[in-house]
């Protein structure tokens, strides 16, 4: 293999390797506890008002169960794994508290 071929290969492979490193880095960041906590707070802040609006006939416990399922599902879809249920519960309770303050 000539030097020119190696250089050509490296030029072609560099963007792909950079992309893979970026994806890997993003996945690692998603596993950091602080990032999971922030994501849970943001998702719960979106889910709680939506459930309050469309599920007015449900009990508070039923609304909370729906919120837990939706927050967990969204976080899983975003790539977060092994999400602590207590973290989701706290994020939902915080979102409910803030909603009632308005």
Automatic annotation (TrEMBL):
InterPro entries: Phage_holin_LL-H. Keywords: Membrane, Transmembrane, Transmembrane helix. The chain crosses the membrane at residues 6-29. The keyword Transmembrane helix applies. The keyword Membrane applies. Pfam families: Phage_holin_6_1 (PF09682). This is Superfamily 6 holin (LLH).
